[in-house]
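Reopening closed ticket. The problem is back. First fold of the pair:
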Amino acid sequence: MKRVVLILLSLIFVLMLGTSVLTVGATDIYPDLLETSFEDGGAFNFATGSDIEPEKDINTVWDETAQAYFLRASKDDPENFLVSTEATNALARMILVQKQSEPDLDLSFAWEFMVRLPEMPESMTYGSGYFASGGFTFCADANYGYFLVQSATSDADAQNLYLQFPMEANKWYHCMLVYDDFEQQFYAYVNGARIKAKDSTNDYVSVNPFRLSYLWHHGLQIGGSNIEYKRVDLSQDIAICNIYSQIVPEEDYLEIYETAAMQWGLIPKEQATNPPQTQEPSTEVPVTEAPSAEAPSTQAPETEIPADETDTDLLPTATSGVQGNDGGVNVILIIAIIAAVLVIGGGAAAAWIVIKKK
């Protein structure tokens, strides 16, 4: 009886060791603050398992190429946009509260966004994002798309900074806006390439500090304009809107981009390393008319954070995913399996020696 118990205990211990080795290698980067899934008449946040506000019927359109829904925001329907407060509230609490007590806390984040404009506006107009006297947002004018961020400590020294890329109507653009907290820089990728700053040869803009305000009052607008106006000012189709609580390295961005590009027909499937299982791309592109609009003012009065938002029990912890790709994970799994086999063999041998001595 003692021999059987010893053998069982040895095998259980070894299997537990092998399991712990295998699970570590399977970790990967994912949008842990906001992962939007557009549905028929609404949207869902996979990161938190809840619907995205407002709770009303939203105009979503089925795309035959991607076999998925996208949001169609139009000036003709100014209330057809979504608001997510979960991701922006988390960023606000970390940046405005937790950072004060933990100066070394890494508050880097990334915003993944995929957009198509049916018509380019005549002048710079606000699109999706979070911006009102600070924040980050997507804008467009007649020839370019922009990512706008603000560097400031108050309205008096506010400086708007732009990253820009050439943009045309009726084309999908997959974007990743990244904030590097340690370097205090923003940079962005669009359709697989890093873009430049406006009126500069730099591929980043420096923010000292990055100004993030009003996030405890307003959320990220998906298809909406300046957060204070709560309306659609730029007609746009939106297929993806995700937020990561960390930097997304370039190699990981390229994998994310390739997956989206294959699904939505930006690049041919034969160019993909791991083509997704979707239908062949369609050549038809739905178009809606959208009148242009003047860019609204970005200035807003200063606001104090309410006391109930400073509850440290509600403060999220900044996360840092394990960087990697499919090849790296496969190698780790193979090594882990070999190690597990060796450990199991050693455990069995040890158990046998114990039995022989008994």
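Second fold of the pair, where the issue appears:
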Amino acid sequence: MSPSDLGFSERSLSIPESRNLERLKREISETEIGRKLLAETSTIPAFIGSVKKNRLIDYVFAPRPRFVFSKNALAKVPSPDIDLALIRALSIASLDLPIKTEDSLFYARVNRVLFAVEYGVKDSQFSRDFNSSVLEAQKLVAEEIGRKLMHGELEKTAFDSVLFSRDPYSLYRVSDRVPFVSEIRDFIQLYGPDFDGVISREEGRLVVAAGRVYPGVFLEDAQKLIHWGGIRRLREVPFYRAEDLELFSQKTRRTLGAQP
């Protein structure tokens, strides 16, 4: 079996790429949220390899956790887009979950908004770029244009910041392919830990348990979570509390309202 079959077709960072990554980390560490995320993910290695379309950085879960940067992501000086792309990847990695969940993606979107608001106070060029994107996002939100039409990381974060200032939970993006933590936890409590009564259908795309049909990813993710530590360890994952989100939302709203 070749390294590419195992998911390790990536290469290590070159010396210039490593230097640019360190410079990028120094930028991010100028914020409280950046320092926190870097500290929580300091042991996770980074590689250059294939990432999803239009993405600069991915956090990859298997066969072992790692950050994968696109070929050209570290070839240039840091930019708002790569700053925000790294915040997203660091956020998902910091939760130390073995699976992708809607809660993890929500956590990452909130952290990007918090980073942009904080970093904009420290860096004038970032502030100008971000404020310009926010003004455009406010128009798009007023016209009920969806987030899917946003392309760059800065555009997406600006759009999210406008939504977040109105209602923190608007940053959730419900998808049939990515479950909520609560859904997987409930599935484990109902049918785990052995899942003897759960039957796979449609080549694993669906499962049937106690006469009910679930997405196949429920069983796959539930088994990974049990192997990882189960519901007891899941309770220790530091997702944001509702009261924290409300405070952050109010702060974001004041910041956006103060823009020229």
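Update: turned out to be a display glitch only; the data is intact. The radius of gyration is 20 Å. Confidence is low (pLDDT under 50) at residues 1-7. Please close again.
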